[in-house]
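Can't attach files on this board, so I'm pasting raw text. These are the components:
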Amino acid sequence: MSQTAVAIAAPAVVKPKVGRDDWIMRLCMAGIGVFLAVAVLLPLYTMLSKSLENKDGDFIGLANYAEYFNTPALFLSGINSLYISVICTVIVLGTAFVYGYALTRTDMPFKWFFRLVAVVPLLTPSLLSGISLVYWFGRQGVARELLLGESIYGPIGIIIGSSYWVFPHALMIVITALSITDARLYEAATALRTSAVKTFFTVTLPGCKYGLISAGFVVFILVFTDFGVPKVIGGNFNMLATDIYKQVIGQQNFQMGAVVSVILLVPAVIAFSVDRIVQRKQVALLSARAVPYQPKPNRKLDMAMLAFCSFVALLILLMIGMAQYAALITFWPYNLELTLGNYDFDLANGGGWDSFFNSVRMSLYTALFGTIIIFFGAYLVEKGRGFVAGRSTFHAIAMLPLAVPGMVLGLSYIFFFNNPANPFNFIYGTMVILVVATVAHFYTVSHLTAVTALKQMDAEFESVSASLKTPFYRTFFVVTVPVCLPAILDVSMYLFLNAMTTVSAVVFIYSTETTLASVAVLNMDDQGELPFAAAMAMTIAYTCAAARILHMLLSRGITRSTQAWRTR
Amino acid sequence: MAAEATTEAGSTPYLVIQNLTKKFGAFTALADISLDVFEREFVCFLGPSGCGKTTLLRAIAGLDIQTTGSINQAGRDISALPPAERDFGIVFQSYALFPNLTVNKNVAYGLENRKLPAAQIKSRVEELLALVGLTDQGIKYPAQLSGGQQQRVALARALAISPGLLLLDEPLSALDAKVRGHLRREIKDLQERLRVTTIMVTHDQEEALTMADRIVVMDQGVIEQIGTPKEIYGAPATAFVADFIGTMNFVPGTVEEGGTVKVGNVKLKCNTGGNAAGADITFAIRPEDINAIDFETGENVVDVEVTFMEFLGSFCRVNLGGDALGGQDLRADFSINLMRRKSMEVGSVLPVYFPPEFIRVYARS
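---
Top answer:
Structure tokens for the assembled complex are below.
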């Protein structure tokens, strides 16, 4: 039988021609992709494989992990880390929610003051809270009786110190979540004669639930992976992050350091992934027609909130105040005369003024090159045309660093860059590796800030400029960058502050030529030079505060001069 | 699909779209679209949201290139070219004006790239701003202009490079009704003066009917009908077009012998649209085409009962029912004048005439 049906050839799929702009964009993206691979992916991979090797570099499977789980002391650190992180999460989340609620939903007076105080911990290395706690509650502390015989060196100190420095991180997320609301929901609740309590549970809480969950995860990850606070105030109470330090710096046991790193990485990655999934569920509650919420005076509530916020602010100020005081004391607790002698860092063993200037240099480089790389990368992801697979892969890699604890990143840099066979080996021990590590470490948040700013721009700018035969880079420099300048400044500020205060990412990879201020604080504390440590930590704080003020003035100036178009 | 209509525009096809299909994963946004646009013609893509009209426009612009099929512009195959290598100017609903550049800079944006002398750019910008009626507004920033003014700047910017094809993506949708009506006429005048081939996407039938030389009505990724506004309104090719544009009565019926259809209990003479006797059809007539004024009794005259009246100012919308129509209601528009003369009220029975030339018959599946 003959075939009656005639097979019709499927029409040819149109293969879009890749234009000149597209080629340039793809090349740039590949360039930044290579940077991310070298700065994040390859080192992590090297570390993973190291954890499966013995000291001679032979593959031994999971033997290191077996050893880890059979060493009660090491295993206990994991339990300790979990325990401390959960407690801190509860404390910080509760405090940040009430504090944030007071700032956004009540008519409490002096809000500006409380906003200002809340960001103070961001200006200092996490180590500072540990040092301050030693002066308050240590063996010669002024208020040690308050602990009723308990030692501050251990879980108590870690919980207080960690809660102090992660508080602003949680608060910022909570404030954002609480700010996004529609006043009409509350008007509807009032019109239906819903009680204030019921309104809180049916409108307020559900509205900010995703923000709270996110803040919870952030606190958990930060405390779980933090190294500074437990190092200074942890005493014999071991946590995972300090274990890595001890294994690597103390015992030179790199393999076990790698194992602990992987174990530290796992919960952080899980918490991070869950948070991402939860965030995806958050749909825009704020439609364009939403009416902003205006809190009404409520004397009882406002006063209660004022009392609460004052208490929290007082704790923050006592913490940093003590560090400042300690930096100015001649010889605690015997000679309380004020002196500037502790600022003569060249006399200390932990690191001189050189480390401070190294830090400033490193932070400036990080802010400059980091902002350029991150903003341009975000632009390519957000505004590129076609090449969907490449763009989404890039975005996924950019999200990864947030889940990688600084200690883990730093350690994996040793494994990766210290290998003479590595073509990038020449940056080891230089300023470059510190900048690369810091940019990589703080990549994600900066990337997201940039993406958010870019998303707010009209999606058709690129289409219009293509129709006008204008190359994309002209529109990028003439339109995109000027319009996004506030966000670009924010990113560079964020990078600068973090570069000044970070310890964990750089503690393994600085060299004698490139000592840093934050590491100097750590080393001074190690050497028992607490007054120097306090003075150095405070010097970092002054620098950060000055940078923030400069940033504020700059932002304001830019808004006034170049952003004149924003006003009608 | 209607045959190619003759238009006042040129008779050479400027843009030839052949068998265009666009798929997003498993979803087919455009299915086998073929269409010619003639030189100097103003064509509107009209349809409900999600019908594929914007997808088609973006394929023509090269912003979202089609999966299969070809596009030829002025004899050049542009099917796979990126937007920068095509010849068009585009105006979006959001205007997409560069907010940090003045109106002058926005309009000059495409010109500055061509290494023209500054004086020449300046005079061209002035010329364009005069063209859209915005002389002396050049030093302002977009945010300082009203929506309508911003849209004119966007238009001037798109026209600055003298494109062969002007694409307008819902350009008036973000404006309020009064400005919209005004700008509608202005854009049409401008298009006629500049004689630029123009394609506009809209979901607003009034906009399409008043501005277009030809309308392309689309639904679910296919073209339902192509024709002049009069053809589209007067002789909608499908039930969808009839329903989407203007108001239409739809009543089920069957085709009888001798070029008639049976609706309710009456037989009406009409063009059966090629449906064979016995076929189930949908009978359709516009409310304004039901005639209650003087006519001879006879063919297509039916006694109906007024069941409902709605006063709408200069005319009334009246529901006509009764046994003859089998209990089904038809809506008719009667002028107040006529209603007074016939002393029409709810419950009155009167003869109305269904002109055969205005009756449309669509196959019912």
